[in-house]
Amino acid sequence: GLSTGCYAQMSGARTRVFEKHVLPGGCCTAWSRDGYLFDYCIEWLIGTAPGNDAHQVWAELGALDGKSVTNFELFNK
Predict the structure, then answer these.
(1) Strand, coil or helix: what is 44?
(2) Cα-flanking dihedrals φ and ψ of residue 71, to 5°?
(3) d(CA 45, CA 3)
(4) φ, ψ at 33 (rounded to 5°)
(5) Which terminus of the chain has a lower count of CB atoms within 10 Å, N or C?
(6) Using CA atoms, how far apart are residues 47 and 55, in angstroms rounded to an integer?
(7) In terms of pTM, does the model score above 0.70?
(8) Which tens digits make up the pLDDT trace of 10-61?
(9) Backbone dihedral angles phi then psi of residue 15, each to the nearest 5 degrees
């Protein structure tokens, strides 16, 4: 949703992005329940090395500006 809206704006379309949840994040979110933390985002961090599709999307959207991602070869196959 958010990425689609951003790409549409980058292509010149006028968009509005709405969040149905109380917090933004979509697939990059975490929540706690009964003392446990559930991190849904971790699966999206696997395979984010330069050259991978996820890295390209994040770079194009500016999500990596000023940040570094530690990539472990085990996950970047």
Answers:
(1) helix
(2) -110, 135
(3) 16
(4) -155, 130
(5) C
(6) 8
(7) no
(8) 999 999 988 877 777 776 777 889 999 887 776 666 667 788 888 888 889 8
(9) -135, 165
